Amino acid sequence: MRIPNISYTVNHSLCTGCGICEGACPSHAIHVEVKGGRFIPLVENSLCKNDKGCHRCHDICPGLGVNLIEQANQLYCNTFHDNLIGNYLKCFTGFSTDTGLREQAASGGMVSQFLIWLLENHKIDGAVVTKFDKDAQLKVQIVVAKTKEEVLTAKGSKYSPVSLHGVVSAIKNSEGSRYVVVGLPCHIHGLRKLMAVDKRLKEKIAGLFSLFCSGSQTFNYTEYILKQCGGNVDDLKYLAYREGSPTGMVAKGKEFDFFKEYTRYNMPLKGTFYPKRCLLCVDMFGELADINFGDIHIEDVKKTGTGISGIIVRDKNWLNLLNEAEKSGALQLNEISAEQMLHKRHMAKAKKTRNASFVLLQKRFKFAAPLYDSEYQANINAKIFLRYLVMRTKQFIGNHKALWFLLPKIK
After folding, report:
1. Which among 179, 189, 219, 341 counts the fewest CB atoms within 10 Å?
2. pTM above 0.85, yes or no
3. pLDDT tens digits for 238-267?
4. Is 123 helix (H, G, I), strand (E, B) or coil?
5. How would DSSP label each residue in 259-327?
């Protein structure tokens, strides 16, 4: 049977937009472009060697699924296991001891602070992070950070499509052999699959850090919010999705300057601007990453009034480095249980139940669907079927600007 190239993933709405396939293609036949409000890989058929037996882009594509349980057991043995978290050594809450960074960066500045400490103490040679493009405020571009200043250009949440399509060449062309890549679970899945067949890349990546992810957003998400607040994309000069305390969107342009609290702009739009593939994802925390970072919802955090991060550590070496960073005074950690990490973490369960059920539903109707090595807690019933229809309807409206007038009416 002939194995297709990445066009199969795109044509069947399974693409995550991760961009890893661009760097994986040995013929340089793939380039990533913005289409339909998100990043999409396009194949130059004249360069593609798929008809000669090359199907690397298909083999490493995270949109087609990943053996989460099998790979996690290979990567992280002698660990604890939780059905929602995956394999892990310890869970923490933590924050940067740099007050300014803690307030300005997302979730207590933990990712930025830890990367800065790793660089300044020569534990790594560089960190692949993402920052907003100064020439196109909605777009995110990768940067191989080697200094504190470069890390800080990437601080803050990115509620817009993030593609790592330049990450493979950037790492391979950089000096040194100890690089950390920060990404979303789908980025990590793609990199793990590529590292399994690309020895040179594997040798240069020392660690993979994942951010918690309930679902990514298309560019339409930000455009809609700006429009509701009297702004527009063309005049956008500055954008931060979660800045200040309480956190919120800060947007500045030629004729607008506003702050909108995070819960007020995000919750009413939950799922509306997700790509379809996000409804089929079963991994919220990034179970194939060495460390995970993200928001935490335990009660003690709310009392602090400032940013704090939930942290899941899966690798012993990275646990030691994290503890070393705390001893140096760069950050503060507090160990918590897996139960505390999961407190009010509704999306973690939804991904293993609702989303897994959506995958099964697609298979039953003979639609293309990702393959995982477990169906988790999938169960098709009338409630799941209705929920699927509602989510897909919301996404249809979100993808068609002419229908945006309907969004304020949807609860």
Report:
1. 219
2. yes
3. 877 777 666 788 888 888 888 888 778 777
4. coil
5. EEEHHHHHGGGTTTT--GGGGG---SS-TTSSEEEE----HHHHHH-S--EEEEE--HHHHHHHHHHHH
